[in-house]
Amino acid sequence: MPLWVLCLFIPLQIPTNHIILLVVLITLIFLVAAGFLLLYVAMYNKKKKKHKEEKIALKSVFENELLKTRLEIQEITLRHISQEIHDNFAQTLGLVKLTMSTADPHQPEQVGGALLRSKELVGQVIQDMRQLSHSLSPDYLEQQGLQALIAQQLQQLEKTNQYTAKLTVTGYPEQRNLQKEMVVLRIVQELLNNTVKHAKATIISIDMLYQQNGLTVTVKDNGIGFDPASLSTAAGNAGLGLINMHKRMELVEGTININSCPGNGTTVVISVT
Amino acid sequence: MLYPWAFTFELICLICAVVFLKNSTKVGYWHAFIYYMLFIVLLEGAGWSCWFIFHQKNHWLYNIELPVTCFFLAWVFGKELAPFGVSKRWGWLALLIFTTVFVYESLHTKLTDYNSWSATVRAVLFIVASGIYFYLFLKKTDYVILYKHPPFLLIAGIFFFYFISTGATIFIEELSKIYIAEGVPLRHVLFTFLNACLYGCFAYSFRCRYQQTI
Description:
The structure holds two protein chains of two kinds. By secondary structure, chain A is an alpha+beta fold. Chain A has eight helices and five strands, in the order αααααβαββααββ. The longest helix of chain A is centred in the N-terminal third of the chain and has 87 residues, at about 15-100. In chain A, about 15% of the residues are buried. Chain B starts with a helix and ends with a helix. In chain B, about 80% of the residues lie in helices and about 0% in strands. In chain B, helix 6 (about 150-165) runs antiparallel to helix 9 (about 185-215). Chain B is an all-alpha fold. The longest helix of chain B is centred in the C-terminal third of the chain and has 28 residues, at about 185-215. Chain B has helices at about 5-20, 30-55, 60-80, 90-110, 115-140, 150-165, 165-170, 170-180, 185-214. Chain B is built from nine helices and no strands. Chains A and B meet through helix 2 of A and helix 5, helix 6, helix 7 and helix 8 of B.
């Protein structure tokens, strides 16, 4: 049997003062160790407090950002409505007024023609207003689905006879998140608006791909394209729209990739989980 | 004759338990602390009278305290470790180990001497349980104000008492002999300090618990 094992069973003849010293020493060492352990727990807990405070601060920043983005979206929507009223409804109704005022009441045939023309124009205004209302309403998105609203946007473009628009949908949504769908719809609307305004495109295609891990929407045109890097360094509002799109996608934990170069059209890929 | 400081601390702790926990819910261990502290005070009083007034050995009394404290504090640990997902089976295993050692030692000494091995095993089990609690407490992401968190104060007191008393527990026989032979009350001094820490933590945790429930 090893010597140290024997020592456990044989009472050691340690002098009294040594025992006292030993007990005092052991107690002091254990006291310091226990103190350190409790101190460590307390310090670590303090770190957790700091971490929690940082999380709250981050959340507050995020909420501020969310609010700002919501206000921006609201502003964009209002601008869109104002533009529609000015460019479309006011123009068409102005035309109705002009048609009615130029008709001579003493010539029934001319009045009849003017009324018919006015009826057509008013009908067109009603239809456009309905479409605008649908494109803005979240309830309509819930009822019709993202796919139907995007198809509607493309149909509207095709009606102008200036564009060939195509929508391809692969898969179907297993779980719907209206907030995310609304953000995607608004971005697609803004992209189409940009295409109409700046791209000088003739073909626009949208591919919607529903997968298990989310939705990917690819918006493609054959327009003049642009250099994304030049927009990010441009002064004023030139690149602001794209930055806002990025921000909005970040808020719904999504991504947006813009691929474009002058003369080669633009492809934008939006992904949300 | 040494002044019974431990008895004084226990009495103060009992008063705190009665004042702060009398209206606490009957479910859980907090209300039971009143009865536990009452038991401890009565036992300490009896032990002190036995030794200093009647000059009789009081080991058998303190041997009764061993399983009572062990089972009661095991209940406390069981309740506090359960939210962290620690199975109750570990608690029952610890109690089985203690009971085996206690029964074996009691049969061996016939309760005429203090069951120091059982006390050591109990101390080790409480230190391990406290260590597990601290570890799981650190792993938890939630933040709590430590000095106002009753279970933490309670377990910190238990850990402090049993961990620091390791030296005194190992040499308990020798320290008793030294006191009888040379009159050096080292054990008394150490345990007075440790009792002050333990019952101080208990009393303060009762107060914090009371503040949480009013």
